[in-house]
């Protein structure tokens, strides 16, 4: 008798949860190493925030944003990216799996390949980056004069969820392209990690070419800058309307579509490691 679909999904989810839990316990069992990794991740985040602090402390504003306002942009984008990195950052390992033939083993298992790739590892140290982004976001919300309402809270939650989806889609897009590039991770890192850095800055300071790349093709501007502009009632770049921040779900849907197409294209191109 065939297993009901709902029971099969529950069984698969339990398997993934068990794998991730075992890896989390394995890392946490080495307490000294885990603490050092966590502190190192926090320090990296603090260094990146210090760069923002130095730039905006030297002048009254950049791109129309003060230090207090840019803390919202930095915190929202950094938190969304850190969460996406925690979930999908292991897609960066795809070139290694392709060269080692490990990816061929994934094809033999009765689970989706992308889900196996995302759960192939777990780096709890990345939680440290989440703490930096969350702290910056919290301080930014306290320092800025925000007209709190249900819509304000909804916009913040919408921006965080859509930012997470956009950055996760970036990792999947990069992984799909790795089927063709193999050793081209530096190129894909340019729009994955470069996009993360661009998302922490106001889009009005971007050159026109970057507006096209990070505003349309890889829409990281919708991860933080545009929602914060809507939150603070500030004009968007190139005279765009203030309400554009509410269009983050459209940008997230576009990012997921591009990621899905790249992933399917890459899978169809893959012919095995040849070992």
From TrEMBL:
<feature type="transmembrane region" description="Helical">
    <location>
        <begin position="62"/>
        <end position="81"/>
    </location>
</feature>
<feature type="transmembrane region" description="Helical">
    <location>
        <begin position="127"/>
        <end position="143"/>
    </location>
</feature>
<feature type="transmembrane region" description="Helical">
    <location>
        <begin position="38"/>
        <end position="56"/>
    </location>
</feature>
<protein>
    <submittedName>
        <fullName>ABC-2 type transport system permease protein</fullName>
    </submittedName>
</protein>
<feature type="transmembrane region" description="Helical">
    <location>
        <begin position="203"/>
        <end position="223"/>
    </location>
</feature>
<dbReference type="Pfam" id="PF06182">
    <property type="entry name" value="ABC2_membrane_6"/>
</dbReference>
<feature type="transmembrane region" description="Helical">
    <location>
        <begin position="155"/>
        <end position="182"/>
    </location>
</feature>
<keyword id="KW-0472">Membrane</keyword>
<keyword id="KW-1133">Transmembrane helix</keyword>
<feature type="transmembrane region" description="Helical">
    <location>
        <begin position="243"/>
        <end position="263"/>
    </location>
</feature>
<keyword id="KW-0812">Transmembrane</keyword>
<dbReference type="InterPro" id="IPR010390">
    <property type="entry name" value="ABC-2_transporter-like"/>
</dbReference>
